[in-house]
């Protein structure tokens, strides 16, 4: 079951390929959706018909990636249910461009929590995404290998377009929808630096839907005019043959996306023998698997230099291509199909492992994103003091750079104290670069019922949570560290008198105020009962 079945869409392609695998193993398999493209109308059944067609022996694979409004329908359907999580783009990545997408992404994460009691097991296509499922309280979480139909990439290139592009220029390619989360604007900035500093005879190809009349599409066209590079082609939606021509003529593939639950175009570029340069956000490092060039910098000058080195150093280019070929070989259709079958077998046959024990919810969540990565920051010192005074509280922080996502979110000892670590959505940069958000940390807080203390209300994590924590939330603001008026007003609006100012000269005084406030809230709740 999917919200929408679309032709050429990564999720739609995955669903169709999984259906072909299930049928090849002897299962009857149908695709259900709320809506679909005309090109898919013969492949899909209406989701509304599923509850009456389901039996206690059917198994429903629920593919979740954005708002579906299907939770009530799923809840009243019979049979076993397994979640397949493709990840949800953080709403903040659409802020300022698409209010509808912001609301839809927020709603999709609420649905992720609402689906939890209705499913028997959950799968994700990366450890990064699986960590969020664990944070949400799902049991029986596992990573499902992404089954790619490599044969679909073997379409012969469009000869006219290939002849046009194969003209001696260095072609830098990006494939995907032009939406804010893909940061196509950063692709433009990197390409501009590359063209001006290293390769004047270069061209940028952006293959994917772009709506010039939409805010982000208009922004991209305006930025192109402002930066002034030459030979930029917004290809729009392309056919399979045109896409093959783009890859066949590409010198390098460039991605600056801020959030990927997997990232099929990265592997498609590897399959087509195009060296990949990608910003290492979210699940991108997992998808790359050590191949290509993963950059932890968003600086256009740094990334442009990587493109130049790939072009100017043939030995390095061949080394990168060899590693990419090995990565693709490890994901052969036969090997991945066998792994998918093994992963799904228990759920298909109703043999789920014993229920894991869910720990009791802590009474207080101390959210200090920089506790591990910025241990000497004033907020981290306040967090340590609060943890000493509130031993029953749970400390939540971002993982340090280089730490892998985890399918077990128990505490790790940090400076002698238990801390729950969560993977950031983007690499943590050096001080004073702002800390990134974390889908898994934010989901853990949303799934909790305890009081929430946001230590640093200007952080991306806190800003994402302000609306969700409601009256169970407190916040501490460091006036000396931030002057972001928008963040300040948001914190004041949502927290009111529960927003405190950090006293850097007397951390203990701020801790006293918070502990008294939390104790007062606890007494008030007990009296209300």
Overview of the molecule:
By secondary structure, the chain is of the alpha/beta class. It is 41% helix and 17% strand. One of its GO terms (molecular function) is glycosyltransferase activity. This is Glycosyltransferase. Keywords: Transferase. It comes from Corallococcus sicarius.
Tell me the number of structural domains.
3
Name the CATH class of the largest domain.
Alpha Beta
Number of strands: 20
What is the terminal separation in angstroms?
42 Å
Question: What's the overall geometry?
Answer: globular
Q: Kindly name the structural category.
A: alpha/beta
Main β-sheet: number of strands, strand sense, barrel status? 7 strands, mixed
> Mean pLDDT score, rounded?
93
Radius of gyration: 24 Å
Named CATH architecture of the largest domain: 3-Layer(aba) Sandwich
Q: Treating each run of at least 4 consecutive H or I residues as one helix, how many helices? A: 19
Name the CATH superfamily assignment of the largest domain: Glycogen Phosphorylase B
Task: Record the SSE blueprint.
Layout: E1 2-5, H1 10-24, E2 32-36, E3 45-46, H2 50-53, E4 59-64, H3 71-75, E5 80-85, H4 99-115, E6 121-124, H5 127-135, E7 141-143, H6 159-165, E8 170-175, H7 184-197, E9 202-207, H8 215-227, E10 232-236, H9 240-249, E11 250-255, H10 264-271, E12 276-279, H11 284-288, E13 293-295, H12 300-312, H13 314-329, H14 333-349, E14 364-367, H15 378-389, E15 394-398, E16 412-414, E17 417-422, H16 439-447, E18 451-455, H17 460-469, E19 473-477, H18 485-495, E20 499-501, H19 507-528
Helix pairs in contact: 5-16, 6-9, 7-8, 7-12, 15-19, 16-17
